[in-house]
Design a protein that fits this description.
The chain is built from 17 helices and 14 strands. It is of the alpha/beta class and 561 residues long.
């Protein structure tokens, strides 16, 4: 009985396990919890669920071993009642996923974690065979929402996306500009999942968007730091493209291509960085990427006279070496909003932690390698994005209604007439109805959604061509000299400290006294150590603050998948 109770509690936890990882589901949109924040709940529920299921199986194994019927019970596949062998298979698949998802394994062997996590299909199917239709219906709701999301992402990711521009920055970072339709909406804190088929057909990697939605209606940008094998191969591909650029007119030359597919954008439904009049943006390394989008978004809004609360902004950026400083030059603030310093009080404090003094090459002109990519007129699919819940709602409702219809039809015309009473077979039919409803009824909605998207995109084709020309001309008009932040420019726009780390106690104390009794939104994007130190200092300050001091509100944009 103890093992049975553990199993039932595990099923209750499993009912919620798949909800946080349904990246583009309507549920996460309605409660405005972005995927990167919801993932931690999936991790916690996963640990709890697998612990309960492991205890469930362990208690039964001990009981069978005492009776001397262990092998017989493990291999038993009952027609009426719980089938043991499917349960064993499901538990083994779950244990493989659980062990490889532990932080040390996931950190050092991400591909192993990624590939073994695809065993969730085996886990779910054999769970349905193990417990039958009635008990499986307890967890079916969350799994069904995940299946809807997975099918929607599959349809979106089948489309290849034009890479309008590929640039290798001198600090080992790659900037990609991707084509998107006008009706695909996102926020400055959104992120996408990117696949490059020349590198891998299975790997998808998340990247924060480094451009504002106001930078252009038909493109978005991402910054990718070379940290592992996949990103290193991506940089090599772009470099090889730039090397063959002078020979592109040769008829026998096969030009290197980047075939990109995109899932997303994902993120908050509303641009919550606009909720605060005062902002502190704390970044570590490539964590500056989403904050470049925020700065661009604010400057565009100030220039165009759109609603925009932030008027006082402090950027605290910690980097290991000074060769990362040119990342700031990917946004030209003066060209976005001339004389922006008269309208927005912007301070940038940069900490170079592993250099005690400016590099001898500080004044050296950096060269960024640009590569033009062949375009085919394909932009990102608008099936996933922020702000459009009508089609998502229709997709969920019609698929759910279709599932109910299929179950009723199966009950009337097959199960009852033929007296199908086998538990595991009823569980299999239940799974089959879920899959069929997603593909048939959900596919119908996606087809109509795609036609609507195609009609809107066709209407905007001429504008897209003009925008693409602007992007390409902006890249070609750049001289061989990259618009880098030289020492002179840095001194006029930022304060750089070498050989030190940001002292957040001092920073928050000074800002609190300087800005007075105001609400300050603190956004952090960086490694977990930086995130925890900022959160700790904010808690400490808010507890000890006086009535005339500022109140800091912590917002994390970091996520670990």
């Amino acid at each position: 009985m103890t093992g049975l109770r553990f199993g039932m509690i595990g099923l209750l936890c499993l009912a919620f396990l798949f909800l946080p990882v349904a990246r583009g589901s309507l549920l996460l949109r309605l409660i405005d919890i972005p995927f990167e924040h919801a993932t931690k709940y999936h991790v916690w529920l996963g640990h709890l669920t697998m612990m309960l299921f492991t205890l469930h199986g362990l208690f039964y194994v001990i009981a069978w071993a005492i009776k001397g019927t262990l092998i017989k019970e493990l291999l038993e596949w009952k027609n009426i009642g719980v089938a043991n062998l499917p349960g064993v298979i499901s538990l083994l698949a779950g244990l493989f996923m659980w062990v490889t998802s532990l932080h040390p394994v996931r950190k050092d062997y991400f591909e192993l974690f990624f590939y073994t996590h695809q065993l969730y299909v085996v886990f779910v199917v054999f769970l349905a065979l193990h417990v039958g239709e009635f008990l499986f219906s307890i967890v079916a709701g969350g799994i069904f929402i995940f299946m809807l999301d997975r099918f929607l992402r599959f349809c979106q990711s089948r489309r290849t996306v034009d890479v309008l521009s590929a640039k290798c920055l001198p600090c080992g970072t790659v900037e990609l500009v991707l084509s998107k339709p006008q009706n695909l909406r996102y926020n400055a804190l959104s992120f996408i999942f990117l696949q490059v088929r020349e590198l891998s057909w299975l790997q998808w990697h998340p990247f924060s968007v480094s451009s504002s939605p106001l930078d252009g209606k038909y493109h978005l940008s991402i910054l990718i730091k070379v940290l592992g094998e996949w990103t290193a191969r991506l940089r090599e591909s772009i470099l090889s493209m730039s090397e063959t650029e002078p020979q592109k007119d040769l008829p026998l030359l096969t030009k290197t291509m980047i075939t990109a597919s995109v899932e997303g954008p994902y993120g908050h439904e509303s641009p919550y960085h606009l909720m605060y009049e005062n902002l502190i943006l704390v970044a570590g390394g490539i964590g500056i990427s989403p904050f470049l989008a925020i700065l661009s978004d604010i400057l565009h809004r100030v220039r165009d006279g759109k609603p925009c609360l932030p008027r006082r902004i402090l950027v605290v950026w910690a980097v290991k070496k000074s060769d990362e400083l040119p990342l700031l030059s990917t946004i030209d603030m003066e060209s976005i909003c001339p004389f922006f310093s008269d309208k927005v009080n912007l301070e940038i404090n940069i900490y170079v932690t592993r250099e005690s003094m400016p590099s001898l090459e500080e004044g050296k002109v950096h060269v960024a390698l640009n590569s033009s990519c062949p375009v085919s007129g394909c932009s990102m699919s608008a099936l996933v994005g922020t702000g459009n819940n009508v089609w998502s709602g229709l997709y969920l409702i019609i698929s759910t209604v279709g599932f109910v219809i299929l179950m009723v039809l199966f009950r009337i015309f097959y199960i009852n007439p033929y007296q199908v009473s086998t538990w595991w077979y009823q569980g299999l039919l239940f799974i089959a109805c879920m899959v069929a409803s997603v593909i048939i009824f959900g596919g119908l909605v996606i087809g109509l959604w795609h036609l609507w998207d195609k009609k809107v995109s066709a209407r905007d084709d001429e504008h897209e061509k003009n925008d693409r020309i602007k992007v390409e001309s902006a890249q070609s008009n750049e001289t061989a000299v990259h618009k880098d932040l030289t020492q002179k420019n840095l001194e006029s726009s930022a304060i750089i400290q070498y050989g030190s780390r940001p002292d957040f106690k001092e920073i928050f104390g000074f800002i609190s006294r300087k800005w007075g009794h105001v609400d300050v939104g603190v956004f952090i994007c960086g490694p977990p150590t930086l995130q925890s130190s900022v959160a700790k200092e904010i808690r400490s300050h808010n507890v000890r603050r006086q009535s005339h001091h500022a109140i800091f509100h912590f917002n994390s944009h970091s996520f670990d998948l």
